[in-house]
C-alpha cells in the first residue's frame, strides 16, 4: 500500500496528540492531580465515542473486539496512567521526547518476542541512534532546575508509558490483521471506542485507590471551572479524534511505521510547551530531539 494511505492520519495524530498532552499538563496542574485529570478526560471521551459508535459505528461488534479491549487496557489504561505521572515531573516536552521515541523501540521488541520478528543490524543501529538522541536531550545539566528525585521518577514513568503505548499499538495491529484475514472492516471511531472502554476502568480504579488512601485532594469548584476547557480539548484531541486517526493509520500500515511518524510528536509539542508552560528548549535538547526522531525514522525504513 502506498505511503500516502497512512501518512495523512498519522500526521494528524501527531498534531492532535501534541495538543492533547499540552492540555493534559495544564489540566493536571490546575486540578493538582494527574489521576483526576486523566479520569475526567477519559470519561468525557467515553461518552463522545459511545455516542458515535452506537449511533453511526459498529458498537461492540467485530471479531477483533477482545484485541482492542486489551489494547485499551494496556495503552489507555496502564500507559496513560504512567504518562500522567511523568508529566508533572518532567514537563510536556521531555516526557514526550522520552516516551514517544522509546515507544517505537519497545514496539519492535514486543513484535520480536511475540511474533518472532527479528531485528536486523540496520534496525539495531537505528535504535541506538534513538537512544543517543534521547540521552543527549536528557543530559542532567540541562535540567539542573528540576528536583533530582522527581527527574528520575519521571523518567521511570515515561519508560512505563512507552511500554504501555507500544503494547497497545501492537495489540491493535493484531486486531486489524485478524479483521483483514476475515474480510472485516472497522471505522477508526468505533475502534477508538472499544479501546477506551478497555482502558477507562484502569484509570478509575487508580483514582479511587488514591482517594481511599487519602491522596486525592478535594477539588475546589473554581479549579474545575478553570480546568474544564483544557480537559475538553484534551479529550477531543486525544482519546476521541486523535486515537481515531491513530487507529485509522494502524489499519493501513504496521505499528512500527506508524509509531515512527507519531514519534515526531516531541518536535510538534515544543512550541506549545514554550507558549503554555514557558519551557524553552536548549540548543542541545533541540539537537538531541532531532537525532532521536531521525533514528526513529531510520528504524522505520531499516530492513
Description:
- The structure is a single chain.
- The chain is an all-alpha fold.
- It has one domain.
- Helix content is 82%, strand content 0%.
- The chain has helices spanning 4-31, 34-55, 65-90, 92-115, 121-137, 148-182, 188-213, 221-250, 255-262, 265-277, 283-301.
- The protein is globular and about 55 Å long.
* Oligomer type: single chain
Helix share of residues? over 70%
Large-scale geometry? globular
Structural class, by secondary structure, is mainly alpha
How many distinct beta strands?
Answer: 0
Number of domains: 1
Low-pLDDT ranges: none
**Secondary structure tally, helices:** 11
The biggest beta sheet reads: none
Mean pLDDT: 81
Secondary-structure element order, as H and E?
HHHHHHHHHHH
Task: Report the portion of residues in β strands.
Answer: under 5%
Separation of the first and last Cα atoms? 17 Å
Radius of gyration: 18 Å
Brief write-up:
Helices cover 82% and strands 0% of the residues. By secondary structure, it is an all-alpha fold.
List keywords for this structure.
0% strand, mainly alpha, single chain
Q: What's the SSE blueprint?
A:
Elements: H1 4-31, H2 34-55, H3 65-90, H4 92-115, H5 121-137, H6 148-182, H7 188-213, H8 221-250, H9 255-262, H10 265-277, H11 283-301
Amino acid at each position: 500500500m502506498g505511503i500516502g494511505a497512512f501518512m495523512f492520519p498519522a500526521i494528524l495524530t501527531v498534531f492532535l496528540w501534541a495538543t492533547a498532552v499540552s492540555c493534559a499538563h495544564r489540566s493536571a496542574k490546575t486540578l493538582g492531580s494527574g489521576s483526576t485529570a486523566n479520569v475526567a478526560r477519559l470519561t468525557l471521551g467515553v461518552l463522545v465515542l459511545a455516542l458515535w459508535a452506537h449511533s453511526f459505528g459498529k458498537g461492540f461488534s467485530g471479531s477483533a473486539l477482545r484485541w482492542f479491549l486489551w489494547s485499551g487496557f494496556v495503552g489507555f489504561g496502564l500507559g496513560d496512567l504512567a504518562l500522567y505521572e511523568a508529566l508533572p515531573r518532567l514537563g510536556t516536552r521531555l516526557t514526550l521526547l522520552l516516551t514517544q521515541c522509546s515507544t517505537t523501540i519497545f514496539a519492535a521488541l514486543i513484535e520480536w518476542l511475540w511474533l518472532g520478528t527479528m531485528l536486523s543490524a540496520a534496525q539495531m543501529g537505528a535504535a541506538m541512534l534513538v537512544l543517543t538522541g534521547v540521552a543527549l536531550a536528557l543530559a542532567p545539566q540541562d535540567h539542573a532546575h528540576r528536583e533530582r528525585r522527581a527527574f528520575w521518577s519521571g523518567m521511570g514513568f515515561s519508560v512505563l508509558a512507552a511500554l504501555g503505548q507500544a503494547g497497545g499499538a501492537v495489540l491493535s495491529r493484531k486486531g486489524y490483521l485478524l479483521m483483514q484475514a476475515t474480510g472485516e472492516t472497522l471505522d477508526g471511531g468505533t475502534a477508538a471506542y472499544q479501546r477506551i472502554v478497555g482502558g477507562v476502568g484502569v484509570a478509575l480504579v487508580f483514582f479511587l485507590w488514591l482517594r481511599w488512601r487519602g491522596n486525592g485532594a478535594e477539588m475546589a469548584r473554581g479549579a474545575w471551572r478553570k480546568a474544564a476547557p483544557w480537559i475538553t480539548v484534551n479529550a477531543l484531541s486525544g482519546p476521541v479524534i486523535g486515537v481515531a486517526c491513530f487507529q485509522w493509520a494502524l489499519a493501513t500500515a504496521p505499528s512500527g511505521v506508524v509509531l515512527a511518524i507519531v514519534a515526531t510528536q516531541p518536535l510538534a509539542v515544543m512550541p506549545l510547551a514554550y507558549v503554555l508552560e514557558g519551557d524553552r528548549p536548549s540548543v542541545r535538547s533541540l539537537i538531541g530531539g532531532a537525532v532521536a526522531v531521525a533514528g526513529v525514522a531510520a528504524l522505520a525504513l531499516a530492513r
